[in-house]
Write a structure and sequence with these properties.
The model has no long low-confidence stretch (mean pLDDT 84). Helix content is 34%, strand content 0%. It has one helix at 9-26. By secondary structure, the protein is mostly helical.
């Protein structure tokens, strides 16, 4: 992406959005082959009390 410092805020936003859109079209990311969040470590519910905190 070109230097956008000289542009006004709205023009800068438009330029950046266009650049992001262009990248997305050129290099699409591969979709997940697993459920979202399924690889997170599962934590057992903590027992109420000072010792567990």
């Amino acid at each position: 992406m070109a230097n956008t410092k000289k542009l006004v805020k709205e023009e800068r936003k438009k330029a950046k959005r266009a650049a992001r859109k262009k990248i997305k079209a050129e290099k699409p990311k591969k979709g997940r082959d697993y459920a979202r969040g399924s690889k997170k470590r599962k934590v057992k519910k903590m027992v109420r009390g000072q010792a567990k905190r």
